[in-house]
Each structure stands twice: as structure tokens, then as C-alpha cells.
């Protein structure tokens, strides 16, 4: 299976600082037809230019610049060098994923939003513009035209495409269906020798002119003709969990010779070329002349022949080479000599752009010697190596570059791809093997790896072929010699707990990645998982499992427990749309009770999908499964977890961690030991994991693993940890051993199916010491009683002297002490008198405003004038000798009359409870 990280390709658009005039001078070339979308969707885009003069106009190098309503802009398409637009002729650009490709001269991949606009530019000078009413002024003329959201989306310039008053609304009619007419060969410039820039077919363009030292082609969107020798095949479709991408397969073509002064590659990938089912390598060595659209997909420059379509779309089709090629030689040519990779140049190249490798993209190269430093061959049958023989593990780093440029710490790192001999399985998501895959364990050395240098998902990979070079040789290292890996056999009086993501264990008859599981497939899966548990994990007492499907009344864990023979499965349906859930396998001899899913209905706390794209759903797409467990003298609550994957934002996992942390604290307050295990999908240094441990609630056992051995996963040749076990303090003190068992990441999957490589996760395993010797347990009740108690002590307070004629707020405080054995309590105050209730009085005289009261510095509130109580403080738990500072405020205005003597009032404070 060739992995795809995302099912939708994204394109980075760089803003261009291009000056744009306020008005565009009328010229001989205008935008004559435009559509920013149509019945086929937003990609139904087309742009037609028209020469309204009586003489040809040289338009080579002119660009279409697109912008959104915010002004973010980029060059969408470029007219090929040397192109000349005849008098009254038209030239057409079309979106490569739309329906106008057959009528186009140049295609482009990045679309134009319905609220944006376009500018036709000759260098920095704007020739013409067309845009929506929301487009920046530089990308429309006049007020622009509102774009339709449905139906035909085209606009056509009036008067046969000649009217030009610098006002889009006045010059165009629509919306309607566009009828563009491409220029074709009429726009081809004079004969140009290959290597002098992008030439419009049928002139041959040198591949070195198409390639660049960046992630795009110098001829992006241009139809070009190339000539070269087929040096290799990619005989494997791409795939994601829900789609197959035929456009990922094809052939490599390399020019027979490369100029000594060339700085770019002389080879290129041609996408979508069908390979022979019986002799796929027969095409290697043929000299081919072929035309297609220059394109860049995920950073790999490619040629896309007619009929293939968009290679980022599952609807891309394969085409026969003999049908789409201009010519294919009947004889075979010698292959261009492979470039021997220079380790020093590779290691010293710029670590971000890797120009040394970029300059060889698609060409035949040879790696003299390399060593697997990031684990063994993956389940996708590829393996990552570093040139040389330095046996040092390559770990994922704790810095921003680890996310944005994961190769930056190892610029020489290379993958070895199995695609050349993969045999073109109809569904690469099902098990397959390649005749050219290189099976390495960690620290195995491989020599003489030859093939085209491909590029995908930010990494360069050599693709060995079925013919043209000798197969690589392998020298086995110390990890291979130590096979099979296994945790030590547990001693007596121990409790052992593991966490194991068994990776998509589905029951018979249910669908996984579009494939319905058969009886034979399920039986083989549980057989190999059981072997891994028995042989590598030595049958732990408790296994927290993840990615086990429970759906439609079927439970994939039941058969696995039966295959093991001495385990019971605990699991329940969960939130995941595919049906996978966390659970437990518990070995006979350990007591398990009260299994339940917790947190399944907790809503997500996020304001929008920009915070966490699980919004507006629930907090957990796979909620924790809790189980009460006991062996010997250890009793604990275990939680099996499978948090949001790394494709989701960090905040998703941080909030999941916070919820589990709170739940674990509550369990500990109830007197329980707690163990949290699972595929937490985050790294030991992440905010999510520090949140889980927060407040010293839990300890991450990762720090107890042997030095250099703390990893459970590999990605693009970098070892990392996603699987963890956390414990509360009562369990941490009993830990005697913690380790990761590397039967999935250090080793390639053995063909005989012994359990190695059954998952892409290495299980963490912890061993606890039980009390030694014989014991017998009997309950004994120890009691104590508390009488119902409500106690309140309180003093008096004085405002001091009131000054007549002075506006002032007088304040004072008193201290109250409260004790309540009730489950709740409330302290309140009221004025029970019937004279000027709520106000201070001096004989028959009363102050104009009520006394205001607060508690512990809170907001003041006036005494109730109807003698009802004013609540000052409340508690939802028993309290003892709790001090409350009661504050009083009396406001007196300058004009308030004050009588000689003392103002006072006797107030009643009450401590009450509803549950004594």
C-alpha cells in the first residue's frame, strides 16, 4: 500500500508583491471569456484571451494571476515562451480538474474563488482584468460582476469579444455557458532547440527545462513534448482508507545524456501510464516521445498525458503508452548511467530544500551503502536509510521543524520504495508483497541500491526495478541477530499490564477500508495477533487493546480471546464511525468487574473547527473504556484510551487529556489506584501528556524505559512514541520493570506470519510487584460518628462617627466562624425589626439608604426591607471552623440630615443546611 497522508491534496499559495495599476490601458489582447465555476462544480474554470487587432501579438511569458477577496494572489498559469497570438486568434487556459481541458492550450491546478478575480499580466504590467464584486480593485475593472453559485458560470465579452470600456459589468454578458476556442499549433513559436525553456508542443522541451530545484515545474500547466528512455516503472496505485489513486503509478523517462552544465534533473515521472500485466518491465529501455501537461504533485514534477485527468483525484485513469505517445521505439536503448550518490554532498546539502537530491529527481541513482536507522521495513513495504553505516537510531525531535520539515535533522535520509516490483495489485489496501522490496531490520546495512529517485510526501526514495541493475545486497545487523524480540518471562508474584494497538481488527462480514473481511482473513489476523501476545509479550495479565471493531452486533475481540484460550475480552460499542473501540483482554487469574465506556457523551468544548476539527461533535471519537481489576494485593481501575489522531489539532488531544486527568483524580479521591494506557497519539513532550499528568495525578512510565528504547512508532524513518502507560502514585511505587517490545517497528514483517509486523505500534509493558507469601483476607469494620452540628460565632461592628454634610461611604467588618456537618450550608443575614427595616435608626430617625452587606470581599447587596434573609455565603460540603469576613457599607449623602446620637440596628445572622 502506498500511503497518502490526506485524501484531499492541498496547495500552498504564496502571495506575490506585484504592482497593479488602478486602470488598465486598452490593448490588442483582452480577456474575452471567463468562468470561475459551472455545472460541474468550482473547478469548471476557463479563461479565453482574444487578439482584437489585425496583427499577431507575442504573448510568450504572459501570466494569469489569481487573487481571492483578501488579496492573496499567485500566478495560476503562464503562456509558453515563444507563443504568438495571431490576429483575431484566441488562447485558452483551463483548470486541469474541470471540463474544459480539451479546449485548452494551458492548464493550471490552483483554482480561483467565486469572490476573487484575475489579472492578465505582461511582466509586471496588467493587460486586462476580470473579477467579482468582492475582488480587489487590481483584479477587476469597474465594480466587477457577481458570480453565480449554481448553473452556468461563464461571462462573454460583448461585440464578438471586442468591447472594452474598462468596466466588466458593461463589457460582459452572462452568466452563460462559455464556448472557448484554443489556439493550438497556430500559437507555436519558431523552432527552438531543446533546453531553451518551455516550448509548446510539438517542439521538444528538454526535461532539464521542465525540472527545477523546487517543488514545482518551470512549465506548470504547459503542454510539452519530451523525449527520453524509460528507466523505471511505478507499479503500485496510491491509496487512502477510502479511495484508490491510479494516477500515482506510471513510468520514469530520462534523457539519454545530460548536459555537463545542467543544474536540474534530466528525468521526469510520466503519470498514469498503464504497465503490462504479464511483463511490466518490458517498457524499460524503450525510447519514447510523448506529450502531456507539466505538473507538480506533492512536490514531484510530472508529465500528465491526455486522458489521465487530475492525478490527485481518485477518478484519474490509466492510459496505454502506445496510444498516447508520439512514438515508442521497438528496440531497447542502454539505460543512462546511474549517478552514484555522494554521502558528503547529501549530508551537507541545505536541510530544508535538499538541492542535491532535487537536482537528481527522477534520475537513475545508486546508493552505495546505507543503514536502517529509523526502524525496519514498514507495512507499506518501504524502508528509510541513511547513507553510510552509522548505527544510531533516528528519533523525532521536540521542535517545530519536526512537524514542518521532518527531514531537516537528517538531510541525507532516503527511502527505498517497493513500487517497481509491486505487481500492480488491484487494491493495494489488501496484503501484497513486492519483488523489489528491501526487507531490513533496524541497523541492517544495504548496498548498491539503484533506481529512479522519486519524491513523495516530502521524502526522496529510490525505486529499485525488476531489470536494469543488480538487486541490492543486505548485511544483517545486531537487531536481526537478536530476533525474536520478547519481554522477559514474568516472575512469580507479579502483575503485568500491556497496551497494544492491534490495528484495525474487524469481524467477519464487516468493511475495513472498503473491503469486507472474510473468514480466512479474520482467522489469519487473530492467529498472528495471538502469536505476538504469546511469544513476544509473554501473555500479560492485562492488555489494553485499541482499534478493535465492535459494530452491527459483532465483536472482533471475542474471537481473539477464544484463540488465546485463557483470556476474556471486555469492550463495548463506542463513538467511532468505523466502529473501532478501546477495550481489554484479561488473563485468567485476574479479577475484572464493572467494564464500561466513560465520557462517550461529553460534548466537545471547542468554539469552532479551527480549534479542533472534531467540532461540532463529541469530545472523544473513541471514548475511554474503564475496568476494575484485581490481582493479588493490587486493586486498580484501568482506562484503555485511543485519542484523536495526529491529523487532528493538538487542542483535540489536550482537551481529551484534561477530561481523563479529572476522571483519574476523582477515582483517586475515591481511594482507587488508577492506570491510564493506550494509543494517546501524542509524544512524551507534548502538552496533551503533561495535561494528563497534571497536578501530579499520574506519572508517565516512559521515563522508566531503557535509555534509547522508549519508542512505539515510526514515521518517515523517525522513531517516536505514541503509546503510553500512566499510573497513580500507589501503583508507581510497585513498578519493577517498564519497556517497549519492538516487534513491530524494529523488524520487517516475516513472511511466515509469526506475529512480527502485525501492527504499526510497539506495545509498552509494565510489571508490578505483588506482595510475597501466603495471605488471607477478611473484612473488618472501623467506624466513627459525627453528630449533626451547626455552629456560628459572630461579633459586633461599628461604622464609627458619621459626619453631617459630607458625602461618604462608611465601611466596617466583623468576623464570623461557621461549622456545619451538613452536605450543604448557607450563611444569611436579615433585619427582623419592623422599624425602618434594613436601615439604621436613631430613635424615630432613620438613615435614608439601607445598610449594604457582603462576605469575604464579594459584591455588596442591600439588606432586604421585607425582613427576608440575604444570602452571604454558601458551601456544598461539610465545613469546620471556617472564617467568614462580613463587610458592611453605609452610604450617606451630603444633604442627608443626621440626628445627634447613635444610629444602630440589631441584625440576625443564620447558618442553615437542607441536609443536616
Automatic annotation (TrEMBL):
Span list, region Disordered: 144-188, 400-428
The entry's keywords: Signal
The protein's name: Lamin tail domain-containing protein
PANTHER family reported in the protein's UniProt record: ENDONUCLEASE/EXONUCLEASE/PHOSPHATASE FAMILY PROTEIN (AFU_ORTHOLOGUE AFUA_3G09210), ENDONUCLEASE_EXONUCLEASE_PHOSPHATASE FAMILY PROTEIN (AFU_ORTHOLOGUE AFUA_3G09210)
Domain of life: Bacteria
Record domain LTD: where: 17-134
Example of a GO MF term: catalytic activity
